[in-house]
Write a structure and sequence with these properties.
The chain is an alpha+beta fold and 110 residues long. Helices cover 40% and strands 22% of the residues. The chain has a domain of 73 residues. The protein has a four-stranded antiparallel beta sheet, covered by helices on one side.
Amino acid sequence: MMLTEEDARRLVLAEIDDVRSHVTYALQVLRVEALPFGWIFYWGAVWDGQNGQRPRLGGNGPFLVDRENERLIRTVTSMPIARQVEDYERRLRREAHARSTAAKKAAQQP
């Protein structure tokens, strides 16, 4: 089964709900970008209507969601997100190569 963007959003919101229990301000998905393998969900605090600022939230790296294998990966804020996406795409290529190699070996078995 492949995830839809709405399914992926539900996974991300469940993760954000875990954080909500530790903070006193509202959290939400701020932006979603489509990627070749799924989506990246940026999230954070909602703008504060009283002082017109967004509360600072540490450790709110975006989530990568892979539509095919339903992985939800929490990224780190200490590394550029583009690099983390590239690293994950490399991982997917290695996994695909390993599956292909295993299938070829299995096909050669008597």
